[in-house]
Amino acid sequence: MKLSELTAYNPITIQCHDNPDADAIASGYALYVYFQSIGKEVRFIYCGRNRIQKPNLLLMLEHLNIPISYIEDKRSFLENEPGGKVQGLLITTDCQYGAGNVTCLPAENVAIIDHHQVEIRDVEKSEINPHLGSCSTLVWSMLREAGYGIRDTKLGTALYYGLYTDTNQFSEIYNPLDMDMREALPCEKSLITLFRNSNLSLHEMEIAGVAMIRNIYNDDYKYGIIKAQPCDPNILGLISDFLNQVAEVNCCVVYNELKDGYKFSVRSCVKEVQANELAAFLAEGVGSGGGHREKAGGFINKVLYEEMYPTLHSEAFFSERLNDYFDHCRIIYAKDYDMDITGMKSYVKKQVPLGYVEATDVLPVGTPITIRTLEGDVDMVVEEDLVIMIGIKGEVYPNLREKFERTYEATQKSYGQEEGHIHDNLIYEPTIHNRATGEVLKLTDYAKICIASGGTHIHAKELTGRVKVFTAWDEEKYMLGREGDYLAVRCDDKHDIYVVERDIFFKTYEEIREHA
User: Fold this and answer.
1) Separation of alpha carbons 444 and 423, rounded Å
2) How far lies 452's CA from each of 143, 426, 508, in Å?
3) Which of 1, 396, 465, 511 has its CB surrounded by the most CB atoms within 10 Å?
């Protein structure tokens, strides 16, 4: 759904969920500003038992002049609406019309803009993206697509703070669009500091203290679990940060139960457990999770949870998932690992078009860069022999010129000109960020086509369980292989071990069969 599809309606009412948080307020405010700018009659409301009371939110409303109105009595409100219905269009933001966390107001027309798991499926006008860290990001991207640039510092500060709070002070950001918005918005950082330092009430301090006394600890795998009372997501982060500083704890999960599910925070201080990957594992099938290698988090949808685990209480769920995570995963340190190729088949790389970028064609040698992709950020320094590869699904990885020239035939054909190439269907186009100047460049603008020369021979086998591979070129971050993916090793380098996703493997490799 695009914002242009909603501009035919007038008036427009924007409603965020009951007991709204900073993200709900910010995303609703952004929509209010946009529709007002194009001449619509628009209002911004919330309902529920309680008015906004948290000090940081009251400061946010005051300093950013956000015109949100509290509907104390639904019945009285609807008595003033012709026919007892909200006229024109009602947009629910950071929530879904008909869900349990938002008061249901009868309306002539309804639209949904949200970043949580899909709960309501019968509203035609819906834009729901559960892969984003905040609804603020979703609204920002929709505004950008509509050609509405955000230059107002107050609006920029609101959206920035919405993302900040919903991602536990940016520690749980894992979508590149979230990162792009954070860097693009005009923002008064002094106000963010003011809001941040007004975030913890005496009651929440008590919640944190009580939670730390009660914990589950697993000595075999050195993980901790804490269940806290309902609280702001940032309090979960505070508790998990503290717990992970305990010498015996390598990783931990802190969570609480909300009306519509479980919010959880993950921390790790060992390279063998990436917090973002663990968060995604915990939420698989019942929610979403992600973040950074050391700090991450997620949300588990209660409806999906109860369908999949009808008799399992939450503490047992997190314990069982964590035990499963550690019990059924093999770790390979490629630099020191001797791969047993018994039973592995031989494959050669297909002559499929891929993208490549000579790093020095983009920026000078020695420039510190970050390559932003859907899979995450990759930090490196431009070197004379650095070649940046773009894989068949848009994945990005580094290569050295000597190995690149042995493996591929380079062409001068532009990557974007390849007919039917994956470039046309990228969910997110990878970008290069010059860390020295802040300049942002599209990687695909510099990419050219290369074709596998047929010189890449590997041994590979299908995985029957989860594997983490610390490659010879990156000993700090592992490649994750799941059941059905392929574990591969180059024939000419027994320590060049890596994982290839199943669908990518069959598109890029073919088996070498012996002739009869």
Assistant:
1) 8
2) 41, 21, 9
3) 396
Please say whether the beta carbons of 123 and 117 come within 8 A.
no
- Phi/psi-derived region of residue 400, left when phi > 0, alpha when psi is between -120 and 50, beta in every other case: beta
Q: b vs e for 152-172, b when ≥16 Cβ sit within 10 Å of the residue's Cβ? A: eebbbbbbbbbbbbbbbbbbb
Distance CA(49)–CA(71), nearest Å, equals 9
Q: Distance between CA 136 and CA 170 in Å, rounded? A: 13
CA angle 20, 3, 261 (to 5 degrees): 35
| Percentages of the chain per state (helix, strand, coil), in multiples of 5 | 30, 30, 40
Number of helices and strands (H, E) in the chain? 15, 29
Neighbours of 486 (CB within 10 A): 22
Calculate the CA dihedral of residues 173, 178, 182, 184 and round it to 10 degrees: 160
Instruction: Return the pLDDT at 516.
Output: 44
Measured distance CA(478)–CA(494) in Å, rounded: 18
Instruction: List, as one string, the DSSP characters of 410-442.
Output: EEEEEGGGSTT-GGGG-SS--EEEETTT--EEE
Tokens 């042995």 sit on residue: 406
**Alpha helix locations (H) across 297-456?**
302-308, 314-327, 359-362, 401-407
Residue ranges of the chain whose pLDDT lies below 50: 420, 422-424, 516
DSSP assignment of 74-143 equals: HHHHHHTSGGGSB-SEEEEESS-TTSTTS----BSSEEEEE-S-------SEEEE-TTSS-HHHHHHHHH
- From residue 451, alpha-carbon distances to 26, 157, 404, 409, 423 in Å are 47, 46, 11, 5, 15
Amino acid at 393: K
> Is residue 1 within 8 Å of residue 111, measured between CB atoms?
yes
Residue carrying the six token digits 């019309």:
97
Residue 19 corresponds to which amino acid? Answer: N
- Short-list 27, 277, 34, CA closest to 129: 27
Q: Which of 271, 285, 272, 274 is nearest to 321 (CA)?
A: 285
pTM tops 0.85: no
